[in-house]
Amino acid sequence: MIQLQIIVGMSGASGIIYGLRLLEVLKEIGVKTHLVLTEGCKKLINLESEYHIEDLELLASTVYKIDDISAPIASGSFKTDGMVVIPCSMKTLAGIACGYSDNLLLRAADVTIKERRTLVLVIRESPLSPIHLENMLKLARIGVCIMPASPPFYGKPKTIQELVNAIVGKVLDIFKIEHKIYKRWGKVDELD
Asked: In terms of DSSP bridges, do strands 62-64 and 82-88 run parallel, antiparallel, or are they unpaired?
């Protein structure tokens, strides 16, 4: 069986908990992850969670420095099943939309787009400006999945973890990864 490989980028938007949970779930199910953290993300880890950077890095299969443009994920010849930026700041979104690949996270996203692989951006900003919306539309038109971190409430979530699982579960759905971490529509009385 071929092991899935997904690049996980985490940028400096509020919502570090989404990236943490995604890495936990992917590790549990045996998906190989290639992690890139922006400097903004590193600052938010301590502000938004009980984790430290080292804890986060232990969840990933491979960790790259943000300025390592020679890393394997900077090349289209390095095969992956796609990439998710979770959370995705508006700065990172703008860089991806403009093809401004001045760091490894942006370069890996650029490669993901040019190789026609799945790219999911879990955006975290509110309210959205016309500039943000134009950048999202530009990327959506070329097939990038723009996913606002806005969880559903039909399952009557009782914890923050349930809200986080709903977003992480949607990301897994896009990559066609089987899971049972959130309540699906029509199955609100049981955990699918």
From this structure: unpaired
> What domains can be seen in the chain, in order of their start residue?
14-80 (3.40.50.1950), 135-185 (no CATH)
146 phi, psi to nearest 5 deg: -95, 115
Instruction: List, for residues 22-36, the tens digit of each pLDDT value.
Output: 999 999 999 999 999
Q: How far is CA 175 from the centre of its chain?
A: 11
Centroid of chain to Cα 169: 12
pTM above 0.85, yes or no: yes
Whether 139 and 118 have beta carbons less than 8 Å apart is answered as: no
* Furthest CA-CA distance within the chain: 49
Structure token pair of residue 121: 């951006």
Report percent pLDDT > 70 for the chain: 96
At residue 97 the predicted structure's pLDDT band, cuts being 50, 70 and 90, is very high
